[in-house]
Amino acid sequence: MLMVAVLLTFARLGAAQTVDAPAKRRKTPPAALPRTPPRGVAATPVARTATPAARTASSTIARYRVRDGSTIDLGWTGIAHRQPWPSEQRIDLALDCRSATSCSVGGGAAGAIFGAPIPLSTGGVPACVVSRLRAALAGSVDPATGCGELRIALTSTVYLGGDVALPCPRCVGDGGANDGRKAGRCDTGPSAGKDCDANAASALFGPTSNDCLPSPASAVGTLAIDLAPLTTGSVRLAAERRCAFRRPGLADHCACADQRQPNDCAAGACGADERCDAPIEGVCSSAPFRGCTLGSGAAECAPAGGGTCEPRVRPCFGDIIDAAGACDRVHPTYVAIFCAPATQAPAINATAGLPGPARLRLELEALPPAPPVK
Known about the structure:
The protein is mainly β. It has a domain at 17-168 and 214-240 and 317-367. Helices cover 2% and strands 39% of the residues. A hairpin with a 4-residue loop joins strand 9 (138-142) and strand 10 (147-160). It is globular. It starts with 16 loop residues before the first strand and ends in a 7-residue tail after the last strand. 54% of the residues are buried.
């Protein structure tokens, strides 16, 4: 089911505030990694996007891949929270390190695909999100500490998937993601049967590729998304708006414009651990995007390869939504909080709870510099 991206997929309907600025930058010549200033709002994705800058003594390319453990929490119902974000996507940052205190970020061109198609599926509703840059990348990084703060303006197109287990077309049979060799084949969509290079890997939904895009006919919304910032610092978004719907007896406040209600918890309040008291729902252990009847064991899940039915307490957002990144030269964590607008698909909006807040957490790994082109 949905995101951004993502994802998924969002506009600047609210603003997250940076509450922690990264540590003071040290004078250090460009190395391999990032550092951060501060600011805050918005959402979605990541992957291979950068226009190589001239490699001089003050200019270099910092390369990252998205690691396993990256997640997105999307919308106010909680149904689309804790969705895995695909790994193996690439982020390439063109760094200008002429400043004595930090490196400014550039790279990317308007219209270029950012990352790879993002498969999301929950509550029986599959979606695929494809994001493109609206402008060049911006921000700053500190190679000495691994801190960074990026500003990424995206246009994210949401496509309604054809099957809960297949939200996006897959690139099947490609041995190495992002190696420049199209050794796989697109399995569905307009490019079915054509060669592809995988650009992302999902443990639940398989590899996706920018060579295997969804059918334009399945698009259900093109949304402006601003990851501003996507940071190794801390961000937060407070529920300070009047909700679109007022529940009897509850003094509700919402985080985003036009958000219907703060959560879908039975008692109306989200716990300190971001869990509702109820409802408790059944999901398949090996396919958490599939719902099941509690107590059914393997009867409903096993036929689809989903394991057994397990209880899940509904996640939720409280009055303060926050996230903390982490500076690291090799394994930085970048976070963003933003308001995701509604799509044109009522099923996606109702299931995820859109418009509503979203939180993206990207676990990254610094990669060695690309070999020089001969």
